[in-house]
Amino acid sequence: MDDSLFGTAEGDPVTAVTAGEMRDVDRVAVEAFGVDLLQMMENAGRNLALAARERRAAGPVAVAAGDGGNGGGGLACARHLANHGVPVAVALDREPGTLTGAAAHQHATLSEMGVPVGVGPGALPDDPGLVVDALIGYGIAGEVRGRARDMVEVLGDDTSGDGTSPPVLSLDLPSGRDATTGEVLGAAVDPDAVLTLALPKTGLGAVDAPVVLADIAVPAGVYDRLDIPYDSPFDRRYRVPLRPADGRPVDP
Q1: Which of 33, 42, 93, 191 could connect to 170 by a Cys-Cys bridge, CB 3.0–4.6 Å?
Q2: Which residues pair with 12 in a beta bridge?
Q3: Cα–Cα dist 165/131, whole Å
Q4: How many domains does the chain have?
Q5: Tell me, what CATH number does 49's domain have?
Q6: Four-point Cα dihedral 187, 190, 196, 201, nearest 10
Q7: pLDDT, tens digit, for every residue of 49-98?
């Protein structure tokens, strides 16, 4: 953990955690405090949808999603957007039938709603107003490969042919980045902003993009039990722009 990488606009430090430490946070929240993964995913998806609506230009929102909690958060975001009348299309990095756990649960809901869900880069709309990167979370192990890599490499590309590219909002950290070190693992998304969850990840110190911290309702006692220094930065807010120690841009 590291409390020197990020702080609030008011100058209060916010502890950044490694992938292993974040894994412990999730484990203790579920096993000891009874917080269901779907609860955290719902909070992540709602926060992500709000951030997407604020950043979206004209055109639909394209959600690129994988499996696990990161992909599930992206799918929950797609549901919230669709519920509020925002055109949205989902591109998965795998066949829907291979999704597991909470991500499969979220996909089933989207299917019943009739939200367009396709597979691979070809499922991304031609001219989106925003791309949400929810492909790979902090659990990445080894280089990005296969269809996920194909999708990582096209996110943010100019698909309209007018020389511009849509803004990209990454969930938790850019897909393809090691959450602990920030190393690019073969290929990585280059986002315009990152909405990170619960606590920033130490690897975000290597990412040149504004970072916003989102509250997903992890009980403060979880951090106490793990001896992670924590003073809630939210204070009646659910999303907090973080100020990097190295002077990189702060999200407005």
Answers
A1: 191
A2: none
A3: 10
A4: 1
A5: 3.40.50.10260
A6: 50
A7: 999 999 887 789 999 999 988 999 999 999 999 999 999 999 999 999 99
